[in-house]
Amino acid sequence: MQNASYTADAYKRQQILTASPEMLTLMLYNGGIRFINEGIKFINEKNCIKSNKALLRAQDIMIEFMATLNMDYDIARQLYPLYNYIYRILIEGNMKNNTAKLEEAKTLLTELRDTWHEAMKIAGKEKNDNNH
């Protein structure tokens, strides 16, 4: 069984190493949503240690988003306060086991992810149209 786990981890590492920046961003959004879901699940199960661990990972993703924004662009200056807000409500939800705050963070992150995914599709279509 350990061998299967090792193989899965190696596959995941390879996906990350070969992903485009756009795909890495999508993967981070998906990871953030997954960790929030885990945090909510563990809060409902009264497992504070596991919920804290999952929510800290979601917070780390928000820190990564804020740290990597290129403030030369208007969109980055618009995203930063939103990312910061999500980060702050994740902290509050984690500290107070407040699933309503965590659901709000998840909703916002899901909307950002979905918008990003649509932008990737449009950019990919435009790239294909320009190549033909």
TrEMBL record:
Record flagged with keyword Lipid biosynthesis: no
Record keywords: Bacterial flagellum biogenesis, Cell projection, Chaperone, Cilium, Cytoplasm, Flagellum
GO cellular component: cytosol
One GO-annotated biological process of the protein: bacterial-type flagellum assembly
Keyword Cytoplasm: yes
Compartments, record wording: Cytoplasm, Cytosol
Entry similarity comment: Belongs to the FliS family.
UniProt name for this protein: Flagellar secretion chaperone FliS
Originating organism: Pectinatus cerevisiiphilus
